[in-house]
Write a structure and sequence with these properties.
Elements lengths: L1 H18 L8 H5 L11 E15 L3 E14 L9 E7 L9 E13 L2 E6 L5 E5 L4 E7 L8 E10 L7 E2 L6 E11 L2 E7 L10 E19 L2 E26 L17 E9 L7 E2 L4 H10 L4 H4 L6 H7 L6 H15 L1 E2 L11 H7 L1 E2 L1 H14 L4 E6 L17 E8 L2 E5 L19 E5 L5 E5 L6 E11 L5 E9 L1 H11 L4 H9 L5 E9 L8 E9 L4 E3 L2 E4 L21 E2 L4 E10 L4 E5 L4 E5 L4 E10 L2 E10 L3 E2 L4 H16 L2 E5 L1
Parallel strand pairs: 1-10, 16-17, 23-30
Antiparallel strand pairs: 1-2, 2-8, 3-7, 4-5, 4-8, 6-7, 9-14, 10-13, 11-14, 12-13, 14-15, 18-19, 18-21, 19-20, 21-22, 23-24, 24-26, 25-26, 27-28, 28-36, 29-35, 30-34, 31-36, 32-33, 33-34
Helix pairs in contact: 6-8, 7-8
């Protein structure tokens, strides 16, 4: 009988523990937990998350949206410490009536000291406000005294005057044990809802209705002989119905990253809402259903977008002088593009609407993305070039699934030259014609013409970026190798080199080449055209590699590609959830000439082979040949599409594995 009572008591206590999610009610069991029972490799776990979104009627303001967040997180180790810093994005607009506000922020870190639970509260010195641009700011807060084993907990409310509802996430980079969600929208607002179709985790919702009401007060004054004799307050109650979407979810898997993913958020489980119509009692329906054409027109009509394109007075004199001696559209475009890059520096703020305004940005020499690239469009048009802006959603902003202005956060320039379209972005020093920052290569952009029409254009590059490496090698009797490398980089390969190494001196470049390459010693180094963006990067260096050959018995073994050979396949997982994104098509080619050491002959030479992936989408070629004491190898990898679908992963993994294995095959020498 005692055993039964004990078991029942244990079950009751466990249920009570599992259901006690009130703020501040952190238990010793949560603090002593060493790992997530169902996901032991997790560095942290959301023990509980609650999100409640509803509309509260306030007289004089109307319905105000409130978004209440409560989250409790367990941190298991130091790799989970990044969970202790949180960001809240707020729209601040240009007036008090259009500002979102963060209220009721309360946060506590809990640690176990012996048997005592210690609490450390978030203080004002742990809260920071950062401007994103003139419309947005971010409140960042960092939890105090975070250790391995800590539990952190916070809650806050975002108050918004807007009817638009931000995407609602149901998945994070760490697992979630318990999530409660409730969305209440007044019957007057009709929303279109969409679950992210790219997500692998699909939550289940319950749709119900609930009664609600609000009260309106009015004052009535009795006036006699121009004197107020009495004042009466009248109150009327309005009943309405809330449409309710709710969910109570358990053990939500983490959104796990994979190698070569564009933006993990594109595959996050989330609910997307778009307001379709508004109809108040006794009023006609206001249809807000939109399309990308309407969204684009709204943006173009914005004074901080289309209005800025029409301003020319601030640059006329300078541009007239700049292009006075040239006549071809290509020369004019190149001069103006370089002029803008040198004249206005990017202030690290994104946006498709201007921050300072083009004229002020021009005078001060600094501006956001729109300041710079709308200025470029305007100047090119002034010079007689057919130029138009392209609205873009960067990779970090995700791929928009419904027509909305927030679907874009960037703008570039398109110039029509020689019957084709050239893409330009003047915000970064090392961009060139059709070589954009990689963050902008996100599927499609929306081109807007001067007459207001618009269309989707593809942003993914079609022209291959090439790396060609020529290597001359002398194999020595002491099993070392000496040689010379000549490297030739074009397009995005060259841009990546310039962005990464433009500030490196000669010694730093030599060290970067030697890094993770064993006994490689770079003896001489030179590069050309780092500053001349019209030409490919040329890189040359001499090297000495100790123990390049391995002697076993009376034979010598070595890899034809030496330190250039792939060591392992980066695609190790059996399955893949997301596409592989290589950003741009590329072609890598190695031409290798090897002189055999004195007194040795070839015993075994790797055979030539060709491997293809998905028809013409990818090809790997390995060609081997011998001419006297010279071995010749030509090794190339061509990927003609930058995106490999998850459905093709198994085939691509095998393709890449065969490439790695081929490069690890050995040449075998023996004494002649």
């Amino acid at each position: 009988m005692k055993k039964i009572v004990f078991i029942v008591a244990l079950i009751v206590s466990q249920v009570a523990f599992a259901q006690d999610y009130k703020f501040g009610k952190v238990s010793k069991e949560e603090l002593t937990e060493k790992a997530n029972p169902t996901n032991p490799e997790a560095n942290a776990t959301v023990l509980y998350r609650s999100q409640k979104i509803y509309f509260d009627f306030q007289q004089g303001k109307g319905f105000m949206q409130k978004n209440e967040i409560h989250e409790r997180i367990k941190i298991y180790n130091k790799d989970g410490f990044d969970q202790a810093t949180k960001f809240v994005r707020l729209y601040v607009g240009s007036s008090n009536d259009s500002k979102e506000k963060l209220i009721g922020l309360k946060a506590v870190t809990y640690n176990l000291n012996g048997k005592k639970i210690e609490e450390d509260k978030l203080r004002s010195n742990g809260i920071f406000e950062e401007a994103t641009n003139k419309y947005w700011e971010t409140t960042k807060f960092t939890m105090p005294i975070v250790k391995e084993g800590s539990v952190i907990e916070y809650r806050y409310t975002i108050v918004s005057p807007f009817t638009g509802i931000d995407d609602i996430p149901f998945q994070q980079s760490i697992p979630i044990k318990k999530l409660d969600f409730e969305l209440k929208t007044p019957e007057y607002y009709l929303y279109q809802t969409l679950l992210n179709p790219r997500a692998s985790y699909i939550p289940k919702f319950t749709n119900t209705k609930a009664t609600n009401s609000f009260t309106i007060s009015s004052k009535e004054r009795n006036i006699s002989n121009r004197v107020v004799t009495a004042s009466t307050t009248n109150k009327s109650t309005i009943d309405y119905v809330d449409n309710v979407v709710s969910a109570s979810l358990d053990n939500i898997p983490a959104l796990k990253g994979e190698e070569y993913v564009d933006n993990l958020g594109n595959y996050q489980s989330k609910l997307i809402l778009e307001l379709q119509s508004i109809q108040y009692p006794g009023e006609p329906i206001k249809n807000l259903a939109t399309s990308w054409d309407k969204v684009t027109k709204t943006i173009y009509d914005n004074s901080d977008f289309g209005g800025e394109l029409n301003k020319t007075g601030y640059f006329k004199k300078d541009i007239d002088a700049l292009i006075a001696s040239v006549s071809s559209p290509e020369e004019k475009t190149a001069l103006i593009f370089d002029f803008v890059k040198a004249k206005v520096k990017w202030n690290d703020l994104h946006g498709y609407t201007t921050d300072l305004g083009v004229a002020k940005a021009y005078r001060e020499g600094v501006g956001n993305i729109a300041d710079i690239n709308l200025m470029l469009v305007s100047m090119l048009r002034y010079a007689g070039i057919e130029a138009n802006p392209i609205l873009v959603s960067t990779k970090s902003n995700g791929i928009p699934l419904l027509p909305t202005r927030s679907g874009f956060n960037y703008v570039i320039c398109a110039a029509e030259l020689n019957g084709g379209v050239v893409y330009l972005d003047a915000s970064e020093h090392y961009t060139t014609a059709n070589i954009l920052p990689s963050k902008t290569l996100n599927w499609l952009g929306r081109l807007i013409r001067e007459n207001g029409t618009s269309e989707w254009v593809e942003l993914i590059p079609k022209v291959s970026s090439r790396e060609m490496v020529s290597i001359s090698i002398k194999l020595n009797e002491d099993l070392s190798a000496t040689g010379k490398v000549r490297n030739h980089l074009t397009n995005y390969q060259a841009a990546r080199f310039r962005n990464k190494y433009h500030n490196f001196n000669k010694e730093e470049m030599m060290a970067s080449l030697e890094k993770n390459r064993g006994a490689l010693e770079v003896l001489e180094y030179d590069n050309k055209n780092v500053k001349d963006l019209s030409k490919p990067i040329l890189q040359t260096y001499d090297f000495h590699l100790e123990s390049a050959l391995e002697e076993i018995g009376d034979k010598v073994y070595f890899s034809p590609m030496l330190f250039f050979a792939s060591k392992e396949n980066p695609f190790k997982e059996d399955t893949r959830n997301y596409p592989i994104d290589f950003v741009y098509p590329f072609s890598d080619k190695y031409i290798i000439n090897m002189q055999l050491p004195e007194g040795y002959v070839v015993d075994t030479l790797p055979e030539s082979s060709k491997i293809q992936f998905n028809g013409t989408e990818g090809e790997y070629t390995f060609l081997s040949n011998q001419k006297g004491n010279i071995l010749q190898f030509t090794v190339s990898l061509d990927l003609n599409k930058s995106l490999v679908l998850a459905s093709d992963y198994e085939q691509f993994k095998q393709f890449y594995q065969l490439k790695v294995e081929k490069e690890l095959e050995k040449v075998v020498l023996k004494k002649g």
